[in-house]
Amino acid sequence: MTGSSVFLKALFVVLVHLSVHADCKGHLQTSPAEIAAECANAIAVGRPTCLHNGTLNAYNTSHPQSCSACTCPDGWTGSDCALCSSLASCPVRNGTDGKPMNATNCTSGEILPTANGEDLRALGKQYRCECGLGDDFYSKFVCNQLPESKYHLSVAFDPAMPNDTSRLVANIVNFAGQPSQNWQPSAHYKYSYPEVWDARFTNCEWLQDKCEACPIPGACPWTSDDQCQFLKCSGEVQVNCPPIGVTPCPEYTPTGCGLSPDISADGNHLKWWQHHCAEEAIPSNSPMQLMCFLPPDSADPQYSCWFSQTEQGNAGVGMRCRVGDCLYENAKPLDPPSDGDHKDFPYLAYVFLGIIAVCILILMAAGALYLNAFFIQSPGTPFLSPPLKPLLPLRDPQDQGVLVYWACI
C-alpha cells in the first residue's frame, strides 16, 4: 500500500469516526451509584483502580469511552492518578524504623530510574501513557481503533536478579474505553471490560542515545539529532489476552463474540460487546523498544514516545507518557550508558576476566615452583613426593607475559 493510500484511508476513517461519534459523547457522571452501574466490571476486578481519591470516568453512552481512566485531584496525574506532579503532593509514610518520613523527591518529568534504584523496587517505576502523539493522521487512525486507550507501564528489578539495572522487567497493561454497561439493551454489554491485554517483557534496560528516525515521517516531534531515552527489552514476552480476571464472552474468538439474547432495532441478534485480541493488535513474543523524547525547554513534563517490536509487522504506535514517583531517599537521576557503551561492556568484561585468569595461573605456577623447591629440601613430606612440577614454563623476562604479571600486582 502506498503512502498516499495509507494517508487517504486514515483520513477517511477519521472523518467517518468523527461524523458518527460527534454527538455520541455522553455526560461525565459524578454520582457514585451511576459510576458503579456503568463500570460494574471494571470496579469488580479493580482494574483500573483510581488512586489518591480519583474518580473513574463514566459516561452515559454506548460509545466506548468509559471506565479506562480517572479524573484526578490536584497534585496527581496519570490515567489512574498514580503519578505525583510535585513534591508537595507526596504523603508522609513510615520508614523502616516506624518513624514518619517525608518524601525527598517527586520524579515528575524524570523518565530514567534513579541511580540507587529506589523507584525500581517493589511495584517499580511507574509510567502512564495514552495513545497518539498529537493531531497527525497516523495517530488518529491507530488510536481511533481503541478509543480512550491508556497504557500502564511499570519497570522494576527482575526478582531473579535484584539490583541489576541491565536486567529489568517491564509490565504493560492496555486499557481502552467501553460502553456504559447499563446502556440498553444491557445484556449486550455484560462482558464489557476496559482491560484489553497485559504483557510482561524481560531482559530490559534503559539507555540514552540519539533518537531514531520517526517510523511515520512527520508524526514525531524529534529529529535524529535529538537525544532520546530508550527502554529496550530483548527477553521472553508473556502476553495475556484476554487478561486474567476478564471473563471471555460466550463463543469467544480473537476477533468476535457469540450472539447475545438482545435484539437490535432491525430485528437481528446483537453480538456480545468485548475488546478482542487480534494478532496484529497485541504484543508479540519479540524484542520491544520504547523510544521517548522530551524537548529540553519543555514546560510540560510529558514525553513523546514510540512503542515498537521487531517482529510485529507494523510501524508501532506513538504515545504521550508521564512519570512521577514519590521518593523517600536523596537520589539523583540515573545517568545511563549509551547504547554503544552497553555493547562494548561484555567485551571489556571478558578481557578483564581473562587477565585475572592468567594472573591466577601465573601466581599458582610461582607458588608451585616455591613449594617444589622447598619440599625437595624437606624429605619429611612423603605425601608431596614426587616433587611438584611448575604449571607453566618459565619465561624470558623480556616476554610480554611479564607485563601481565606486573598488571597482576
Automatic annotation (TrEMBL):
Keywords: Membrane, Signal, Transmembrane, Transmembrane helix. Residues 1-22 form the signal peptide. It comes from the Eukaryota. The chain crosses the membrane at residues 347-371. This is EGF-like domain-containing protein.
